[in-house]
Amino acid sequence: MKVIVKPSTVSGTITAPASKSAMQRACAASLIKGGETVLHNPGISADDMAALDIIQQLGATVMQQDDTVIITSNGVNPVSQTINCGESGLSVRMFTPIASLYKNVIFINGHGSLTKRPLHFFNEVLPQLDVQCKSNNGYLPLEVKGPLQPKDIEVDGSLSSQFLTGLLMAFAGASANNVTIKVNNLASKPYIDLTLQVMKDFGLQVPSNENYERFHFSYKSNGKPTDSLHYTVEGDWSGGAFLLVAGAINGNIEVRGLDVYSSQADKAVLQALMQTGVIMSVEVEKITIQKSKLKAFHFNATDCPDLFPPLVALAAYCEGTSVIEGVNRLAHKESNRGLTLQEEFGKMGVEVVLQDNLMIIKGGEPVNGAVVSSHGDHRIAMACAVAALKAESEVHVEGAEAVNKSYPAFWSHLEQLQKS
Ligand SMILES: O=C(O)C1=C[C@@H](OP(=O)(O)O)[C@@H](O)[C@H](O)C1
Ligand SMILES: C=C(OP(=O)(O)O)C(=O)O
């Protein structure tokens, strides 16, 4: 699908979508907790749908009712031998250890970009927890056979935090007692805060967190699972970042649904925006942001790598040279995002230089109309669309359907803002 974005101002009020990071964790926690969970503001992205499907294959029942999703679970009790993670990195890395709680073989698959994302962590780590694990040389498909036994273990967290999220959930699901997960070089640390927050909200066992290096579980019985836990999925700072950047580039908009007290990593977009000098007011209920004269910024996105795409769009309109640190974190996302951002913004005449772990963006020059490609990556599609808002002419975004992975309403939200 191709979407043509015309240069235009944006105005009006928009509510950010549900966070897929929070929604997928809530699905996992509902499965592990047992009993009934009512999810309010449930996400509907492709990644969220993958997580809902996985928990059903692993034994939960899922019912849509009005604006909620009701999940009932008896723990991990699969009704199928196979789970399909779609294109979701979080789902495959979080649900593989959870599926390993089961005593029989489970096959794990996915499609598209997920088949190219590294999973060798499991070949190294799961056997140490008594799980047999086969993979296709460190890639999908996987085959696991548990039951996983929580043990003291030391793992490498430098590739992705998502493996640790999976281990933490699985250890809680196995009632880990007096065991420690030691992690070296953990990446994307705030995502672990979100994991621990969701575990706490669901009444799961929460380990102590010693400086993101040691997570110690000491068993505390929480008694019977709470009947009918109500959980509201928070708004998505990762998708919301594109809306805020759209406002800064060429708008006057109000973004709702973003919790300023959230544990989400991408809340840090506010820090980058503040450096640009944008006119913005942050309140509990809403963030108001408007087109302003923007100056270049220097931002470290090592722990919030999903902010690179919106920040490159922002940097294109900032006077001077902006620098974003943490490019090494981008190689294994839906595309190799350092390279795809360089290529696609290059087509619009925006110079993006990759130097070691830095991305250097020369801003303040005219942004040209162009035909760009999403490379099947939702965040590349959204970054190009937002950059188009003040371009010299139309930007044609090919592969625009990629946004369904995290933000299916993105194109209609953008259109709504362009019209109001
Ligand atoms: O746990 C999560 O919800 C996520 C963690 C991050 O991945 P890494 O830990 O691999 O950086 C992020 O990029 C991804 O979009 C979502
Ligand atoms: C990398 C992403 O997600 P995941 O790793 O869960 O596929 C993303 O949403 O940008």
Automatic annotation (TrEMBL):
Pathway as given in its UniProt record: Metabolic intermediate biosynthesis; chorismate biosynthesis; chorismate from D-erythrose 4-phosphate and phosphoenolpyruvate: step 6/7
Q: Which residues bind phosphoenolpyruvate?
A: K20, G89, R117, Q162, R337, R379, K405
Q: Name one Pfam family in it.
A: EPSP_synthase
**GO terms for MF:** 3-phosphoshikimate 1-carboxyvinyltransferase activity
Q: Enumerate the residues binding 3-phosphoshikimate.
A: K20, S21, R25, S160, S161, Q162, S188, D306, K333
Q: Which reaction does it catalyse?
A: 3-phosphoshikimate + phosphoenolpyruvate = 5-O-(1-carboxyvinyl)-3-phosphoshikimate + phosphate
- UniProt-annotated catalytic positions: D306
- Alphabetical GO biological process terms: amino acid biosynthetic process; aromatic amino acid family biosynthetic process; chorismate biosynthetic process
Entries under InterPro entries matching the protein? Enolpyruvate_Tfrase_dom, Enolpyruvate_Tfrase_sf, EPSP_synthase, RNA3'P_cycl/enolpyr_Trfase_a/b
User: Where does it reside?
Assistant: Cytoplasm
- Give GO cellular component annotations, separated by semicolons: cytoplasm
Write the signal peptide boundaries.
none
Q: What is its EC number?
A: 2.5.1.19
Enolpyruvate transferase domain spans which residues?
A: 6-414
Q: Which UniProt keywords apply?
A: Amino-acid biosynthesis, Aromatic amino acid biosynthesis, Cytoplasm, Transferase
Q: Which HAMAP family does the record cross-reference, listed alphabetically?
A: EPSP_synth (MF_00210)
**Hey, which family's this protein in?**
Belongs to the EPSP synthase family.
The subunit structure is:
Monomer.
Q: Output the PANTHER family linked to this UniProt entry.
A: AROM/DEHYDROQUINATE SYNTHASE, PENTAFUNCTIONAL AROM POLYPEPTIDE
Q: What does this protein do?
A: Catalyzes the transfer of the enolpyruvyl moiety of phosphoenolpyruvate (PEP) to the 5-hydroxyl of shikimate-3-phosphate (S3P) to produce enolpyruvyl shikimate-3-phosphate and inorganic phosphate.
Name assigned to this protein: 3-phosphoshikimate 1-carboxyvinyltransferase
Classification lineage: Bacteria, Pseudomonadati, Bacteroidota, Chitinophagia, Chitinophagales
